[in-house]
Write a structure and sequence with these properties.
By secondary structure, this protein is α+β, with helices and mostly antiparallel strands. The protein has 10 helices and 10 strands.
């Protein structure tokens, strides 16, 4: 996208296409109908994103005050025109709509983590206003970052609930924006899985920061609270135990591998970006829990240094990223426990560091 320093944003959703594909094939129209409509909507938005990348997006206004969030929440009223009607701006009082208030709080939590922990002023580093649209479409089973703003569906109530419920979903999607403005990782194969993993890592850190949790206290789940009661599962993904987040007769079993021994080779989901992200997710969780304390401090700092350091190539492989985390840990902390935790974590998941 030419208006943002040459970055090329992609259309990033929290629910992987393979999950909606499975739902779309279900014999119950209450399950298959919303999934099919969500897939169709995602395809349309993905096409719009490609067109915007080619022709350029409108310029975004700068924040009025640096170091302060500038949030605006809009209501699509179950339509698809973005951004919709403005329903809450920065410093406005809470509304009677819990979805609006959760979106507003999630934008703030994401802003706060990046500013407090890494001195990053909004997702672009320059005070970018944070916009979100809620109540998008009808029974829409997804949330996404479209390169310019956040969008949340209400879910179908059968499989997925309101997508503003888990704060890590909000943090995950906004972190795609951070990646867009920094490493701009290509959204395919291992680089795409790194793109997804970084969003999971910082989404989890935003939740932990908001709750004041240590690495030992954190559940390391992505999307806890999003699955409807009928679903046999606890979340969309588990960073601590990839492959265990759900095992359901409708959704199937969580396909994420925990190590390179089980790396999934597939042409679906842009080469398995939501699947193989379990491997670098697991590495981060291992490093963070080995170090203890607050995960956003030392482990998070190392990952942030790599994301924003300028050495991470767009088509980076897991080994490239791992090697840079070793370099970053050594450069910031020397030969101490931070370096050893990072080295051991990558060894445990089977990713070589050069």
């Amino acid at each position: 996208m030419t208006t943002h320093g040459g970055s090329e944003p992609v259309f990033c959703t929290i629910i992987p296409p393979h999950v909606l594909d499975k739902l779309a094939q279900h014999e119950d129209p209450a399950l298959s109908g919303p999934a099919r409509r969500s897939l169709e909507r995602d395809a349309l938005e993905r096409t719009r994103r490609r067109l915007t990348t080619v022709v350029g997006a409108p310029a975004v206004a700068a924040a009025a005050e640096t170091g302060k969030p500038q949030r605006t929440v809009y209501d699509a009223r179950h339509r698809t025109d973005l951004p919709g009607k403005k329903v809450r701006g920065e410093s406005d009082k809470p509304t009677k709509d819990a979805t609006v208030n959760r979106a507003y709080a999630g934008l703030g939590a994401t802003f706060e983590l990046y500013l407090s922990a890494y001195q990053r002023d909004s997702i672009d580093g320059n005070g970018l206003p944070l916009d979100a649209t809620v109540h998008y479409d009808t029974d829409y089973n997804n949330a996404f970052w479209n390169g310019e703003q956040m969008v949340f569906g209400d879910g179908d109530g059968e499989i997925f609930l309101d997508f503003t419920i888990p704060v890590d979903v909000i943090g995950h999607e906004l972190t795609h924006g951070v990646t867009q403005y920094t490493a701009n990782l290509a959204y395919f194969g291992q680089s795409g899985a790194l793109n997804e993993s970084l969003s999971d890592v910082f989404g989890s850190l935003i939740k932990q920061y908001t709750l004041g949790q240590t690495a030992a206290e954190a559940d390391w789940l992505i999307g806890a609270g999003l699955l409807a009661p009928r679903v046999t599962g606890v979340a969309l993904r588990s960073m601590k135990e990839p492959g265990t987040a759900y095992d359901d007769d409708v959704l199937g079993k969580d396909p994420q591998p925990a190590t390179m021994d089980d790396f999934v080779h597939t042409n679906r989901d842009n080469g398995g970006v939501h699947i193989n992200s379990g491997i670098p997710n697991h590495a981060f969780c291992l490093a963070a829990t080995a170090l203890g304390g607050h995960a956003w401090e030392r482990a998070g700092q190392v990952w942030y240094d790599v994301l924003t350091g300028g050495e991470l190539k767009k088509d980076a492989l897991f080994a490239d990223f791992a090697t840079l985390t070793v370099k970053a840990a050594r450069g910031r902390y020397g030969e101490g426990e931070e370096l050893q935790a990072v080295l051991k974590a990558w060894e445990q998941v089977g990713v070589r560091t050069l």
